[in-house]
Amino acid sequence: MKYIFEVQIKEGFTAEEYADAWVRASQLIQRAPGAMGTELLQKIGDENSLIAIATWHSKIERDAMQAEHTFAIDKIIQSVAPFVGIRPLGEFKEFREVVASYADDDELS
Question: 4, 37, 59, 107 — which has fewest CB within 10 A?
Answer without folding.
Answer: 107
